[in-house]
Amino acid sequence: LILKDKEKNEIEYEDTPETQKMIDLVNKYNQFMSNQEVLDVEGTRLHTALARVFSRGDVSSPDHLFSYGGRFYTEGTNYQQFPSIDRKMITINGENVYELDFRSIHISMYCSMEGITLPEGYDVYSQYDEDNYVLDANMVQMVTCTYKQDYNPYREFQKLAWLILINCGKRDKTRMQNRRLAINTLEHKLKEDRELPEHLQRFTGLKSVNIEGVVTHIENTFSIARGLLYSDKGIELMKSDSDMMQQILSDCVKEGIPVLCVHDSVVVPQSGVGKVMEIMKA
Questions:
Q1: pTM (two decimals)
Q2: Among residues 114, 18, 9, 8, which one has the least CA distance to residue 64?
Q3: 263 and 257 in contact (C-beta within 8 Å)?
Q4: Which helix (H) or strand (E) is 134 found in, with range?
Q5: Looking at residue 45, what DSSP letter applies?
Q6: What residues contact 217, with CB distance under 8 A and at least 6 apart?
Q7: What b/e sequence results for 24-38 when a residue is b if at least 16 CB atoms lie within 10 Å of its CB, and e otherwise?
Q8: What distance in Å separates the CA atoms of residue 129 and residue 158, rounded to the nearest whole number?
Q9: Among 158, 208, 210, 247, which lies 20 to 30 A Cα-Cα from 53?
Q10: What is the pLDDT of residues 145-202, one digit of tens each?
C-alpha cells in the first residue's frame, strides 16, 4: 500500500484497521497469482504482483489520507501498459483471455450519484460529431483488418476527450482557464500519438481533429454531466472504482479465478468469463 503527496513523493503513514485490511487483500491476491502461469505472446512470464497507490496524501489531514486515487499498479514486465491487442495475446495457465471492463465508468458513477439513470448499454463515447474529424478511410480500414476489428477512431478520441475534461481541472483556476488547459492537453496527446509507430497509435487514420469543436460538442450535448467537466472529480471517482476493483479481485481469489487488473478492467481466462462478469455486475 503506497501513499503519495501532491508532488507524487511517497510518504509514511500510520497503520489503521482500514489500511491493514487493504494490505491483507493485496497480499492474498499477490500470493494467489504467484502460483499462476501468466505469459505474454512470446512466452515470457509476466510480473503480476500489485500495489495499491493513493495520491494527494496529506498527513495534516488524516481523515483524507486515503481519499484520492487508490488504483492497483504492477511493475516489471508491465502488462498494464501493453496495447489492448497485446493483452489479448496473454495466456493464463495456458488459456486464452478476454478483457472485461466497465463502460464509461466515471460518467456512469457521477450520473448515478446525481440521480440520473442512463439507458442500459448506453455508450457516451459513441456520441460524437463526425464534422469535427477528417478521416483517412483507407488507414482506418487497414487497422480494422489488421489489428482491431472494432476499431473506431472517433470513439477513441471522444474517450480521451472525456478523460481529460473530467481530470484536468485545477481547483484554483476558472472554468475557462481549465477549458483551455484541456484543449492544450488534447492537442499534446494527439501529437504524441502521431509520433508512435502506426500499429501502436491510438488514433490511426485521424488526419485532423477540430479539438475545440469536440469539446464544445461534449459541453452542449451532455448538459446532465456539466458539473463533472473541469471539476477534478476524477481523482475522487477513481477511489470509488478502485474500491470496486478491490472487491472484484478479492472475490476472484475466493473463487479461484486468476485475473489481471488493468485499473478499471480485468483480463480473465476464458473459463472464468461468466463468473467474473457476475462478480463485476454485483
A1: 0.83
A2: 18
A3: no
A4: strand 133-135
A5: B
A6: 128, 129, 132
A7: ebbeebbebbeebeb
A8: 10
A9: 158
A10: 887 778 899 999 999 999 999 888 777 788 899 999 999 999 999 999 999 887 778 8
